[in-house]
Amino acid sequence: MNLPNKLTLLRVALVPVFMVFAALAHLGVDVHDQGMALAAGIVFAAASLTDYFDGYLARKHGWVTSFGKFMDPLADKMLTTAAFVYMVVDRACHPVVLAVILFREFAVAGVRMVAAEQGTVIAANLWGKVKTVLQMATILVYYFGAAFTNSLAFAPVLAVTAALCWAVAAVTVLSGGIYLWQNRQCFLQTK
After folding, report:
1. Beta-carbon neighbour count of residue 89 at 10 Å?
2. How far from chain centre, in Å, is Cα 85?
3. Which of the listed residues 26, 52, 120, 121 has the most CB atoms within 10 Å of its CB?
4. 3-class SS string, 35-90
5. Which domains, ranges and CATH numbers included, belong to the chain?
6. What is the distance between the alpha carbons of residues 146 and 158, in angstroms, rounded to a whole number?
7. Which stretch of DSSP H or E encloses residue 115?
8. Would you call 149 helix, strand, or coil by DSSP?
9. What is the pLDDT along the chain (191 residues), one digit of tens a residue?
10. How far does Cα 154 stand from its chain's mean position?
């Protein structure tokens, strides 16, 4: 197993660590633990950095593998979806945004499964990467904003996060539509 794939697996392993800190932060309710929000933000940032480095190393050294093409976007989805679930619970993000994200991920996963059945591995496209970066930036704004504000100053963090969440929803719809269009031959082919 090469280094980029190990970094991807590290990102997967950091998901439950992030979830523990996010759960302990209790953001958006009466109890607001800034230390736990900071810890969640740091773990999320570290996991996000593995996304950059695994892709960079894989391309630079020609270490692109089918495992990486499959597992890298899955690791991203696990990390960002967990964060958005907590943000919805914290009332920082509207449930419709989470529904849009989940719908897109299920649709893309379905196309990938059909493609895999046909012997094809589909890597993430540019718009999927833009969506992931915007999602990660939104999550970082939320957790680091929560870590460095007290409960009384938390309202602006929620407002900025909510606006970013709607931007995420728009880019998610756009990237999903482009992805489905680019790979329509996978589900339009008849046997």
Report:
1. 17
2. 11
3. 26
4. HHHHHHHHHHHHHHHHHHHHHHHHHHHCCCCHHHHHHHHHHHHHHHHHHHHHHHHC
5. 3-188 (1.20.120.1760)
6. 9
7. helix 95-117
8. coil
9. 899 999 999 999 999 999 999 999 875 555 578 899 999 999 999 999 998 999 899 989 999 887 887 788 889 889 999 999 999 988 899 999 999 999 999 998 888 888 878 777 776 788 888 998 999 999 999 999 989 987 767 888 899 999 999 999 999 999 999 988 888 887 676 55
10. 23
Q: Which amino acid is at 76?
A: D
What is d(CA 158, CA 138) in angstroms, rounded to the nearest whole number?
A: 11
Q: Round to whole Å and give the CA distance between 143 and 46.
A: 13
* Helices and strands counted in the chain (H then E): 7, 0
CA torsion through residues 11, 78, 132, 164, sign = negative
Using alpha carbons, select from 66, 45, 12 the residue that is nearest to residue 138.
Answer: 45
Q: Crossing angle of helices 95-117/154-182, nearest 10°?
A: 30
**Structure token pair of residue 28:** 């958006």
Residue 122 DSSP one-character state: P
Cα–Cα dist 82/86, whole Å: 7
